[in-house]
Amino acid sequence: MLGIPLATAGFTAVACGVCVEDKIAAAYDYAIVTQAAAKKHQVAFFALDGRVIDNEVEQRTLARIAQGTRGVDPFTARVSTANAALSVAFDPAVVTFAALERALGKRLAPKGLTLLRLQVMAQTSDFKKRASP
How far apart are CA 69 and CA 100, in angstroms? Predict the structure, then answer.
């Protein structure tokens, strides 16, 4: 009897890691990551918690909200409504990650959405790991 709960707990942990990777992959854009690395900027990946409608209108709306957030690099917001994921590039000399996360969270709150931090790619090695297959 003890083996079943332990086996289930192990599977859940693996599934969560897979879900995180799926969300990051859904909002990942190689060109943006490459440009951010060249400028010594960072790329932040978030899960969106709440009701996300999976259609193009919602995707454009969420991207526009993210893009209009102070500190987000122009044209770098990527949204996957199917996976409830979002990414943006930003210059840490202009805005800290914490300030970006707070501002973006406030802008998404009226839509009933909350941000869940997945990963911040901050160093060249972070970009290289993600860029290679």
Answer: 8
